[in-house]
Structures are given as C-alpha cells and as structure tokens.
C-alpha cells in the first residue's frame, strides 16, 4: 500500500494558504520531499512546456512550477526546469511562460540542443525495449521531480506521470521506437508497455531520489503537445503527489473516472457518467494498461491510500 | 496510428540531408538538391527532423487518430 497525497483545488476558506499553489508546497512536504533532496543536490523539474506553435494553453500554469522551484531552493537544492525536443522547444517554453523571470530557475533542454545528449540504459526483462536512451540532463540530475499534467492522449488514452518520463525524458530514437509499438495492436497495449520500459530506465538511478506530481487540472482530451486545447472533460480536481508513480497514476485515473463530466466538454457530448473509463470511451485505448504493466514491472503498487490535505 | 502530414518548405530547404540522417522511419529523400517527405505515412512524430533542421523548414501535422477525430466532426 502506497500513500498518495491529494490537495483539492476547491477552496475551503478564503485564505491564501488554502489556494492550490500554496497547498502544493504542503503536499510535497507531506509526501517526504525533504528526504528526497539533500543540500547541494541538482534537481531536475520535468514539465511539459506546451506545444511548439504556442497555440495550446491548457498546460501546467508556471506559478505552480515556481512554487516547486522555491521549495527546492529552500531545501538547499539547485533546481532547473526541463523538457525534451531540444532548444527549439525551450524557445517556445519562453513564450508559453516558462523562463528564468517567471520561474527563478534555468529552463534547459533535457537531452541537449538537438537531443543528442543521452545515456544508454539497459532494461532487464523489458516488455519491448531493452535499451533506452535516457535524456542526459535527467540522468545526471541528483533528484528528479516529475511534474506531470494529467490529460488525455490518443496513443494511450491518458498521459500523466508515467508518460512525462517515458516520452519526455528520453531521446528521439527511443521515442520513435515507442511510437512504432502503436502499430502492434489497436488498444495501445504495446505502446503502454513500451512506456513502462522507458520509465524504468529513466528511474534506474533515482531510487529514493524521485517524486511524482500529477496536476489534475485542465484535464483536456488531448495532449499538451497538440497545437490546440479543448475544454476539460471533468471539473478541476487538484494536485496529487506520491513517491510511488504507479499508485499516483492509479489514484489519478480513479479520481478522473469517478468525477462527473464537465459541461460543454467532449465528455458531455459523449454522455459520459461518473464511474466510466472516460479516456477509453474517448480514445478507445485503455489507460489502465500502463498502470498494470508498471506494477508487473515492479515500479510500484496499484494499492493506494488517498491522504487529503 | 502515427503518420502525419510532413511539409518541407522548398524555398528554405538547403538540401543538407540532416532530416534523412536522423529520421528513424525513412520519411525523407533528397531529390534534385531538396528534401521531400516521400513516406509521410511512416512518420512516427518523434520530431527529430524539426529538432535538427538547420533552417527550420519542416512542419509536421500529426494525423488525428480516428476515434477522437470522429468526435469533432
């Protein structure tokens, strides 16, 4: 059984401390970030900085990333914010609101200006991908804060903490190999197993040095990489944190599936109900496959205790 | 399934062949000194070509997946 800490975005009182950016700090402390970061550690904060054409807008709001940066600094860590796709993506990140001025940390490519900086990591008993090229700056970081946005995705139904590492902390070659797996079946099973192989590789040198965050807000049907955004399929839920990536993903999917469909969304159009496997109904890909595969691979447990702060 | 509309701006392309070299799916071919997306259906949307192109002349428009596309028709 793993603990998953949840802060709901709903205000209980009209107080600053009740507002979600401040509750995020409390969540990270509850989840044990002080045991993860030692003074002097270089800390990678992996986010998706939005699409390349600056047309989508439902990604993580930069204020939340700044809160994490400030917490890391207060613990003596040296933070940097990072994403994949090379320097050109960092250029779009600046326009999307992720830069030194807004975050108080450098924003740098995860794997070099042209994605050629990586370490080859072997994955024993892999589902599909036995050698993964892990993004160099992620591998070199002492600590990894995996700050993911929970939303839909056409390749796997849903993308959150697992996908943020599997597709966002690797090289373009491994990314291509995982996408190639989509051709093997219609329900996204091989693709999701491939993501688990990559996630294992990314976390291979981060035992006790990684913490995972799901931003369960603006849960739009498509990925942050798309050059458009649509209305969220469920009302804003909040932010969840755990050191167990599988427990976190299971809890997040349960929260989304148990939520009512949001008005004016594609979920309303589909007449989805609380309890429906919403991403399966939208994308015809079962997102729980990645959770089950991850548990089987030893990344964590699906059994969780939800601790609300 | 992956696959995309891959557009090479012929005015900007200098025919360096970097996209041919980095593409894992064999999408590009140099014809008469310019790159052409000859196998766009094979595109895996890894975006390596965009990352590496020195003149920023490649655009990828991923093909929308059938289930979600139908919901927006």
Features:
heterodimer, A: 309 residues, alpha/beta, Rossmann fold, eight-stranded mixed beta sheet, two-stranded antiparallel sheet, 13 helices, 12 strands, 20% strand, B: 73 residues, alpha+beta, Alpha-Beta Plaits, two-stranded antiparallel ribbon, 3 helices
Structure description:
Chain A has a single domain, classed as Rossmann fold (3-Layer(aba) Sandwich), CATH 3.40.50. Chain A is built from 13 helices and twelve strands. In chain A, strands 4-3-2-7-10-11-1-12 form an eight-stranded mixed β-sheet, sandwiched between helices. In chain A, strands 5-6 form a two-stranded antiparallel sheet. Chain B has one domain: Alpha-Beta Plaits (2-Layer Sandwich), CATH 3.30.70.20. Chain B has three helices and four strands. Chain B is 22% helix and 25% strand. Chain B is elongated. Chain B has 73 residues and is an alpha+beta fold. In chain B, strands 1-4 form a two-stranded antiparallel ribbon. In chain B, strands 2-3 form a two-stranded antiparallel sheet. Classes of the chains: A alpha/beta (309), B alpha+beta (73). At the A-B interface, α4 and α8 of A face α2 and α3 of B.
Q: Characterize the biggest β-sheet of chain A.
A: 8 strands, mixed
Low-confidence stretches of chain A: none
Name of the CATH architecture of chain A: 3-Layer(aba) Sandwich
Shape of chain A: globular
Overall pLDDT level of chain B? 92
Query: Strand percentage of chain A, roughly?
Result: 15-25%
Overall mean confidence score, pLDDT of chain A:
97
- CATH top level of chain B is Alpha Beta
> Largest inter-chain interface?
A-B, 28 and 21 residues
CATH topology of chain B: Alpha-Beta Plaits
Strand order of the largest sheet of chain A: 4-3-2-7-10-11-1-12
Radius of gyration of chain A: 18 Å
Succession of helices and strands of chain A: EHHEHEHHEEEHEEEHHHEEHHHHE
* Main β sheet profile of chain B: 2 strands, antiparallel
Domain tally of chain A: 1
């Amino acid at each position: 059984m793993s603990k998953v800490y949840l802060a709901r975005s709903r205000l209980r009182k009209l107080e600053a401390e009740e507002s979600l950016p401040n509750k995020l700090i409390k969540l990270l402390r509850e989840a044990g970030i002080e045991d993860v970061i030692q003074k002097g550690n270089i800390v990678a904060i992996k986010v998706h900085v939005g699409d390349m054409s600056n047309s989508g807008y439902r990604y993580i709001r930069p204020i939340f990333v700044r809160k994490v940066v400030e917490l890391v600094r207060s613990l003596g860590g040296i933070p940097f914010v990072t994403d994949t796709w090379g320097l050109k993506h960092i250029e779009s990140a600046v326009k999307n609101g992720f830069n030194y001025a807004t975050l108080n940390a450098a924003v740098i490519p995860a794997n070099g200006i042209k994605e050629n900086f990586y370490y080859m990591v072997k994955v024993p008993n892999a589902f599909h991908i036995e050698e993964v090229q892990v993004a160099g700056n992620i591998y070199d970081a002492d600590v990894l804060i995996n700050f993911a946005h929970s939303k839909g995705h056409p390749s796997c139904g849903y993308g959150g903490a697992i996908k943020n590492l599997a597709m966002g902390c690797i090289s373009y070659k491994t990314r291509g190999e995982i996408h190639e797996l989509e051709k093997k079946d219609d329900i996204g099973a091989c693709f999701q197993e491939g993501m688990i192989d990559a996630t294992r590789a990314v976390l291979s040198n981060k035992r006790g040095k990684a913490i995972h965050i799901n931003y369960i807000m603006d849960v739009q049907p498509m990925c942050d990489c798309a050059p458009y955004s649509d209305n969220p399929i469920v009302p804003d839920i909040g932010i969840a944190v755990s050191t167990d990536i599988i427990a976190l993903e299971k809890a997040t999917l349960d929260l989304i599936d148990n939520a009512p469909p949001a008005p004016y969304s594609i979920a309303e159009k589909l007449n989805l109900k609380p309890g429906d496997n919403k991403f399966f109904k939208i994308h015809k890909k079962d997102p729980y496959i990645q959770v089950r595969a991850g548990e089987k691979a030893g990344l964590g447990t699906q059994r969780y205790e939800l601790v609300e702060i | 399934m992956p696959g995309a509309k891959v557009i090479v701006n012929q005015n900007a392309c200098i025919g360096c062949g970097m996209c041919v070299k980095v593409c894992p799916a064999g999408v590009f071919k140099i014809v008469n000194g310019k790159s052409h997306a000859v196998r766009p259906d094979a595109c895996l949307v890894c975006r390596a070509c965009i990352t590496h192109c020195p003149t920023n002349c490649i655009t990828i428009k991923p093909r929308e997946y059938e289930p979600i596309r139908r919901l927006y028709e």
